[in-house]
Amino acid sequence: MDRIRTKISKILVYYTIYLEVYDIFILKARTFSFRAESWCWLTYSTESYNKQEGRGLRPNKAIQLKKEEKMGLACAKMWLLKNSDAIMEISYDLLSPEEKELLDSAEKELVNAYNPYNGQARVSSAIRTATGEVIVGASMANASSTVNLCAERVVIGQANAQGHRDIRELALIGTDADGIVENPIMPCGVCRQFMQEIVTITGQDISIICSNSDKTRIIKTSLSELLPMAYSGSPVK
Q: Which site in 18, 89, 149, 208 is 20 to 30 Å from 221, CA atoms measured?
């Protein structure tokens, strides 16, 4: 009887050790593997989505969407809608109604953009405050190009004049002398730093939507993605 008890005790000890080892090594390894597989599937799905849109992540390797790749399309669309912090090209149809409204407001403001000089590039912008108000602004060029005013700084200045520094979203769109800008309009470095001051004030990141002239190419991102490790001074208290 004692021998049986001893054997049972040893079995229980070994089993306990096995569970500890299993928990430490095997479960963690499986968790890591699951995360890796999830990331691979996400990348795969996103590439599938972009191929269907006609602009693959690797244009030189873009091919017709394979039958099995369609399975990942819904996953990619859901991920794109829920993750505004990534730099991702997205179609106009996948924007939320609020995002479409913001981009459309920026587009309407293009008529007020001014630039009779080289290339006649004109940009307009719209922002949405924390209270849901939409404010628009347009770029203004100058004969001395160093004093040009970008649309982003104009619209933020406009918002500030109305007592709003609580900016949550910003949309950009532009055109030129030909009326066509194929690539999405991106904020310049100065404007990114200018927007960073709003983040310093509010402690909230800014969602950014950048579009080309006809809204066929749109990038949805955020200031933290466009300006990582941003410079931020120490305001006097």
A: 149
pTM to 2 decimal places: 0.65
**Is the CB of residue 199 less than 8 Å from the CB of residue 168?**
no
Q: Does one domain contain both 78 and 101? A: no
Report the distance separating Cα 72 and Cα 86, nearest Å: 18
Backbone angles phi, psi at 118, to 5 degrees: -45, 120
Q: Range of 173's domain? A: 92-226
Q: Please name every residue paired with 129 in a beta bridge, in sequence order, or none if there are none.
A: 167
Residue 180 covered by a domain? yes
Helices 73-82 and 28-52 pack at an angle, to 10 degrees, of 100
Q: Which of the following is catalytic: 47, 107, 152, 169?
A: 152
69 is catalytic: no
User: Domain for residue 135, yes or no?
Assistant: yes
Domain finish residue from 82, 112, 143: 82
Domain count of the chain?
2
Question: CB within 8 A of 128, min separation 6: which ones?
Answer: 98, 102, 134, 167, 168, 169, 170
Q: Residue 140 gets which letter from DSSP?
A: B
Q: Which pLDDT score, from 0 to 100, does residue 31 have?
A: 41
Strand partners for 171: 126, 209
* Spatial separation of the C-alpha atoms in residues 210 and 191, rounded to whole Å: 13
Q: Is the pLDDT of residue 75 over 80?
A: no
Residues 67 and 105 in one domain: no
* pLDDT(71) > 60: no
Q: What is the pLDDT of residues 27-57, one digit of tens each?
A: 444 444 434 434 444 444 444 444 444 444 3
